[in-house]
Amino acid sequence: MPTQKKKQVVKKNPAEQGPSAPVKPVSPALQQQQRSLSTQFSSIIRSARRVAPEMIDAILADSLKYRASDIHFEPQPKEVLVRFRVDGVLQEAGRIPREHYENILNRIKVLAHLRTDEHFSAQDGSIRYEHEQIAIDMRISIIPILDGEKIAIRLLHGYIKQVTLDNLGFSKPDQEIMLAASQKPFGMILVTGPTGSGKTTTLYALLNILNRPGVNITTIEDPVEYKIAGANQIQVNIQTNLTFAKGLRSIVRQDPDIVLVGEIRDHETAEIAVNAALTGHLLLSTFHANDAATAVPRLLDMDVEPFLLTSTLEVIIAQRLVRKLCEECRSQETVTIEQLSKQLLTAKEFFPENRISVGKSKGCTACGQTGYKGRIGIFEFIPMSSEMQELILKNPSTQQMRELARKQGSHSLFEDGIQKVQAGITTLEEVLRVAEPPTLSGYGSTKK
Ligand SMILES: [Zn+2]
After folding, report:
1. 169: CA distance to ligand 1 center in Å?
2. Which end of the chain has a smaller Cβ tally under 10 Å, C or N?
3. CB atoms within 10 A of CB 362
4. Omega cis (within 30) before 396
5. pTM value?
C-alpha cells in the first residue's frame, strides 16, 4: 500500500520535462512495431473485481516491470487510455472504462493530498509509494481536459543509485577526462543538451563517485529529481523567491565542497556559479545548448567575463540519448557500405570498411516488440587547454570553438554514436534521429 508524503508544489507538468522527455518521432516501420504493452491491470479490468486500490497497485507494478518513467491517464469520450513512457516513447498500457476511472482518480487525489472536489483547475502533488520494499516517489499532475481530468505521473526511481559513468555510455578516455576535472578542488564542469538528454543523470553519476564522508555536497535543483544520501538538496521555489541565483548565493555561504546547480539559465546564476567555481568550489551544472562548442559563445552572450570562464571551466560535455538494441533479441548482421549509404549519404566517411557488422533486433516480449530496451548516451567532450583558453579570451564563434576542439582530438556526438553502432549497442537510425553527421566545415550541427 502506498504511504503518504507531504504535498509539494511542482512548477511544470512532470510529464513534459526531465530525463524522460519525449524522444523524436521514429520511422513508420518502427512505429508499427510499437504495439501495446501486455499489462496485469488490463486483465484485472477484464475480470469482475475492479476495485480502485487494486487497479492502482497493478498499474504501478506494471509500470515498474516496464521501467516506465511516466504514466498517463488520458480521458476520452468512452474510456480512459493509459499509456506508459518507456525509453522515451509513449506506449499504450491499457484502457479503463469511464465508470471505473472516477474511483481511481479520487484515490490518487487522496494519496497526493489534492482536493477531490476540484475538477476544473490544475493540481500538483506527490506520493511516496512502496512496492516490494522499494520506495518510489511520484510527482502527480492533474489537469482538466475536455473529456475529464487527465493524470500524469512521473516516477522517480531509485535507479539513480546504480548509475555509473560506464553504464551511461561514457568511453574510458572520456571518463578519465571527467574524473580528472572532478578531482580538482575548484572549477566548473558543464553538461549541455536539450531537455530530456540525460544531463542531470550524468551529473548524478559523477556525484555518486564524489560523494564520500568529509565532503559537503549541496545542490539546488528544479525539480529535485532524485534524493542523494548525504547531500543537501534544495528545491527551487518561485513562490518563496528561492530562485537558482538566490539559492546559489546562500549555498556558497554554507561551506560546500561541491555544488550542483540544476541549470544555468540567466546572467545572474551564471555569474554566481562562475564566482563560486573560482573561490574554491567544484561546480557542476547543466546548460541548455545544442552542443559543447555552442556553450561558450552562449555563456559569453550572457555577459560572463571571458577571463572568469577560462579560469574556471574544466570541461564541457554535450550529450543525447539513443535507444539500445534489446539484449534479449539482438543479433549481428553484416551490411555493405552501399546499404548504409541509403540511410546516410556520407557513410563512407564514417565506416572505413566495405562490409560492416551492425546490430539488429526482431522484437520480443522483453522489449514489447520494439527491438529496443533501455537507453545510452552519446557524448561530445571539449576539455580546456591553454590554446582553448586563449581562444575563449578572444570571444570566439561557435565555428571557431568547433574547429579548435576538432584539432585537439574531440569527436562529435555523431561520431561517438557511430562507435556505438559498430559495437552493436544501437542503430544508425537511432543516432541519426538525435545527431547530425559532421560536415567538412567542422563538426556539423546537431539536431535538438
Ligand atoms: Zn527484444
Report:
1. 20
2. N
3. 12
4. no
5. 0.77
